[in-house]
Specification:
By secondary structure, the chain is an alpha+beta fold. It has a single domain, classed as Histidine kinase-like ATPase, C-terminal domain (Heat Shock Protein 90, 2-Layer Sandwich). It has 7 helices and 9 strands; from the N terminus they run H-H-E-H-H-E-E-H-E-E-H-H-E-E-E-E. The strands form 3 sheets. The protein has a 5-stranded mixed β-sheet. Strand 8 and strand 9 form a beta hairpin. It is globular.
Length: 224
């Protein structure tokens, strides 16, 4: 007898493929409309955000399913951080343009690091689309090395993280309630990816705070 979780995973995979086609259609429509109508651009940006958020949630579910079958599978290889950041930005460029965001990038130096590129890009994509959604206009992405950890930081000029999210930042994995909605699932998934990256007895972590360059939310991913 087929396990229901396997059927669900297959259905989620099909839905994700359909969503990818929908996102491509939204981007094509945005190119055709251009900047001729601000109200239409704003609506397209909102639709693109919701579709991207749903696509990310489906990816979360698939990864959690795989993690339930075995340990979260990792494909660790050496990557240039500039390329990783550029890929995440390129995925969301239409949304950035439609929202008229001013995005800045600061690389401390040319950094290469061993990581799972697919999972890290998925994590950062989730963080970036939420920063675009909740910021006023400015977003900053920084990469640097500190105390033998790679740090990737996303800052914005929004109203900052609510206290509930800051409290969850200090929770242990077993304390996460993923039934609370996208915030709970997103944080759980980000923490799971970070912890899966191990090196020399150290594990990755995520940090959330308010302040930074623009006085809004500051998300930091640290990988050993």
């Amino acid at each position: 007898m087929t396990d229901f979780s396997t059927i669900l995973a297959c259905a989620v995979h099909d839905m994700k493929n359909s969503l990818c086609l929908l996102l491509q259609s939204i981007e094509t429509l945005g190119d055709e409309i251009g900047d001729s109508d601000d109200s239409v651009s704003d609506r397209l940006a909102s639709i693109h955000y919701e579709a991207s958020r749903l696509n990310t949630s489906l990816m979360h579910i698939l990864s959690l399913y795989r993690a339930g079958r075995e340990q979260l599978p990792l494909n660790i290889d050496e990557h240039y951080l500039e390329d990783v950041v550029d890929d995440v930005i390129a995925t969301n460029q239409k949304y950035i343009d439609n929202k008229r965001m001013l995005l800045s990038i600061e690389h401390q130096q040319e950094i290469t690091w061993y990581l799972d590129n697919e999972l890290i890009c998925l994590l950062l994509n989730d963080i970036l689309i939420n920063a675009i959604r909740y910021s006023k206009q400015h977003i900053l992405i920084k990469t640097y090395v500190q105390d033998d950890y790679l740090c990737i930081q996303v800052e914005d000029d929004g109203s900052g993280y609510p206290q509930s999210m800051l409290d969850a930042n200090n929770s242990e994995m077993q304390d996460f309630d993923i039934s609370t909605g996208r915030t709970g699932l997103g944080l759980y998934f980000a923490r799971m990816i970070a912890l899966a990256h191990e090196r020399n007895g150290k594990t990755g972590e995520i940090l959330m705070e308010n302040g930074g360059t623009y006085g809004g939310s500051v998300f930091t991913l640290k990988l050993p």
